[in-house]
Amino acid sequence: MNYKQAENMSRRRSGLARGVTYVLLSLWALVVLFPFYWMLLTSVKGYGAYNAEYIPRLFTQHPTLENYVTAFTAVPLARFFANTILFTVLTTALMLAVTVLAAYAFARLNFRGRNLLFLFFLSLMMIPNELVVITNYVTMTNLDLRNTFTGLILPSVTSVFYIYLLKENFEQVPEQLYYAAKVDGTSDLKFLFKVMIPICRPTIITITILKAIECWNSYVWPRLVTDDEKYFLVSNGIQTIRETGFGRENIPAMMAAVVVISVPLIVLFLCFRRMIMEGVSRGGTKG
Amino acid sequence: MKVTLEHLTKTFPARGKKGREVTAVNDFTFEIPDGQLVGLLGPSGCGKSTTLHLLCGLQMPTAGRIYFGDEDVTQLPAEKRGVGMVFQNYALYPHLTVLQNILFPLQNLKGADKLSKEEMNRRANEAAGLVQIGELMERKPGELSGGQQQRVAIARALVKMPRILLMDEPLSNLDARLRLQTREEIRRIQKETGITTVFVTHDQEEAMSISDRIVVMKEGLIQQIGRPQEVYDDPANQFVAQFLGNPPINLFSGRIRGGKLLIGEEAVLEAGALPDREVSVGIRPEGFVPDPQGPFTCALSGVEVMGREVSMVCTHQAAAAPTVRAIVGADQVEAKAASVRFRLKPEKVFLFDRETGERIYG
Amino acid sequence: MDKKNAKGWLYVLPALLFLGAFLVYPLVDVLIYSVEEGFNFASQTYSGVGGYNYAYVLRDPYFIQAIKNTFILVAVTVPVSTGLALLISVGLSSISKLRELYQTVFFLPYVTNTLAVGLVFMILFKSTPYTDGLANLVLIWFGIAPVDFIDGPYWAKMTVLCLYTVWVVMPFKILILTSALASVNRDYYNAARIDGTSSLRIFTRITLPMISPSLVYLIITGFIGAFKAYSDAVALFGTNLNAAGMNTIVGYVYDMLYGSSGGYPSYASAAAVILFAIVLTITCANLLISRRHVQYLS
Questions:
Q1: For A268, B105, C82, C256, which has the most beta carbons within 10 A of its beta carbon?
Q2: So what's the pLDDT on residue C42?
Q3: Cβ contact (<8 Å) for C179 and A281?
Q4: Is B75's CB within 8 Å of A10's CB?
Q5: Residues B182 and B198 placed together within one structural domain of the fold
Q6: Residue C98 pLDDT more than 70?
Q7: Are residues B216 and B257 in the same domain?
Q8: B15, C135, C25: which is closest to A140 by C-alpha?
């Protein structure tokens, strides 16, 4: 029968299409994963073994952790780490406080000039960081805040986008709740902490994580404002390691350092995968 | 085109670890005569939409066969079946104009079936004329009202001259006034084109008012097939009796004793040769006739005026629902009595098995 | 001002202070810097006002090289990454098994430190006396002569930079496109299938128009992002990008700022303003073109 053949053909074709799709997707997965595999692999190869491989091997029979020891002893990797954690925590916490207060004001408090001010905030989203970093650098230099945490943190705090995101979320909380609380004599601040924040927790967690990722990976500003290793973050640390640390040839130790600074974010991502991806797709950008 | 379903079954595999297999369509056999308008009717989850998807080929059955005329189309993919479908949300392409939407199916034709531009436009205009949207051709769907979108969707389904036309809840997205108007419109278009049409609905009034036949379904099983009036007058079981009719049928627990039907302690009707047993009694609201000598007594709690008729709201201790409704002529009402006596029209009273809900014929 | 107004302003005050100090003031200031001629960092004095800084920057061979590099990078990576992301997203949305796994894997580059993974790319592509590097081995395997992608010829360095940039920007694009594809109502596809529409036609006449707003968004942010490329280049070629001939416009701005001589904020400002002008022009052009072609959904 004619249609039987037609049907078989279309089934075969769709089977083929599916096969091609999976091959293509797996290929890209390989491209994505290979660098991660390679840094893990290289980080457990011995220094001698690595340099003896003219043709790099895709696996190793004698994994070693010596590179990790080197990474933490030969360069102040632990210090970079501690700096980054401190920087990330403080910046994110400050950002949260500022953002929550502003978003709440824009979403719930009525004050003169609110809409105009919000419009102004939105227009600030268009200003590229590259444009303002120059003056910020000069300001920090003039205030003698180079090589301090204050200098590192302050210009990194605000993100108009997060204020916008949280304001939108706050506005979804029914207004009746606010009026009910007012009738009961709840203060604005108490309402914010007891009602708004718990209800909007997912968004708050999302922006916290996004900001933490941003802080962890920030490079440009820290590079400008610090030139003392004592204040380096991991990104700058990596760059220093690459240019001076370990002797430039100790690639396995370098890779160990790379693994160490990559792992925290990957773990964070795997734990909060859904929230992060949703947050990013709602408008986060990179670069 | 006659459509025949033979033992059609669709089973969805279990989802997740705890899920169980779901049989959405269970052993359907029926025939739709050429040129009829058939309504698939049932509550949500009864398998009516799945049946529609099986008919158009978006889903493939687990077992059974589908014939269009004499051709077995069971394994034929959707695009080769030549069906027109109107989706519940119309699925009009928002970025195309009305004309482009209607032309879309024609532009898919390839090879020998390919049409000239003039022919395509002619047919598109013809279809648009049929549903009376000729003046909207350059608009985008977003600029149209719900009723207009519905017409465009029908025109798009008709333009390729389908062998059968399928409609998924065609009226559910319209407001009440448009619904009345559109259902007459659908009836007119179907009669004019003579295309065998199957539509799905959960609204019994909608199905009854325009269908040549209705198929009442529940949990994947066909309950009853027939002309709307037939099904209403002669329901196969308690579910069908309850599902059709507005206000709904009144249910009482009753029993047969010595050839009489008893509700409470009152013998309300002769039960013929039926043996003594417990039964469930369904009485249509129009089956009550106020009669001071009537055998059936209810407490009267109020009267709702509906114009030509009135609805007497009563209570009865044997009734399944808190209220019993009787629709009677406005002149038959005894105004402020505390109770009212009825005589029952035997053809409006149905007996059902208490356990299975199956009809008991006496 | 009454109490209610004061309270509202009090709540936004911290945000206002931060934004004012680190976003608004610098924005004004950078424009001023860019026209102050002969600015001396140490004494904070300048000799005059005019366009000299712009003229200097535009004549600076390093800046011209940076412009050239950036434009090549933009011209290559934006179409390649958008096209590839579209292909992958369409593939992703057509499967159901393993889909979450693929999505998770594809998103990984987003959460990694650009500098750190750049190092891995560097060792993959670098050729040293000890080894040609993995990339070159693959080339040799295909019978192509090895080349040092990190310290070698210009085209080789540009290739790695483009590759790495694409690798870095893909997660965001895939994510946006997959969610755009997922939000297209299935009924459109069903309707098209019943009408016998070919897959290609479904893709070009239904899918693409439906996701065009997301595509435009991606192309615009893609352009902006690529024009601001910097850390990817640093990761691959080190901080001395001018020496490697791989500097970008943003890199030029920072290099000007961070000179050992105390820096030239005037030149940096002029370069930054030029960058902003380029980005703004291209974004507007994008919007104009897309407004003509994109069918915004009503």
A1: B105
A2: 65
A3: yes
A4: no
A5: yes
A6: yes
A7: no
A8: C25
Domains of chain C by residue range: 54-108+162-293
CA–CA distance, A87 with A226 (Å, rounded to integer): 13
Three-state secondary-structure class, residue B359: strand
Count structural domains, chain B: 2
Name the residue in chain B with its Cα closest to that of C198. Answer: B108
Give bridge partners of residue B262 from the DSSP assignment: B255, B267
Which class for A192: exposed (0-12), middle (13-18), buried (19 or more C-beta within 10 A)? buried
> What CA–CA distance (Å, rounded) separates A228 from B87?
67
- Looking at residue C294, what is its pLDDT? 61
Torsion angle (degrees, nearest 10) of CA C51, C57, C61, C64: -100
**Residue in B with minimal Cα distance to C189:** B91
- How distant, in Å, are the alpha carbons of B88, B90, B133, C193, C215 from that of C187? 9, 8, 23, 10, 22
The pLDDT score that the predictor gives to residue C255 is: 87
Residue B71 amino acid letter: E
- Amino acid at position B292, single letter: P
Q: Before B247, cis peptide (omega within 30)?
A: yes
B263 & B149 share domain? no
Query: Model's pTM, two decimal places?
Result: 0.82
Q: Taking chain A, what is the end-to-end CA distance rounded to the nearest angstrom?
A: 58
In CATH, what number does C54-108+162-293 get?
1.10.3720.10
Residue in A93, A276, A100, A110 with CA at minimum distance from that of residue A200:
A100
Residue ending a domain, among B222, B243, B264, is: B243
- B76 at interface of A, judged by CB pairs closer than 8 A: yes
H or E stretch at B339: strand B339-344
Mutation test of the interface with chain C: which of B76, B79, B113, choosing the one with the most C Cβ atoms within 10 A? B79
Measured between alpha carbons, how far is B140 from C281 in angstroms, rounded to an integer?
32
CA distance A113 to A99: 18
| DSSP-derived secondary structure letter, B14 | P
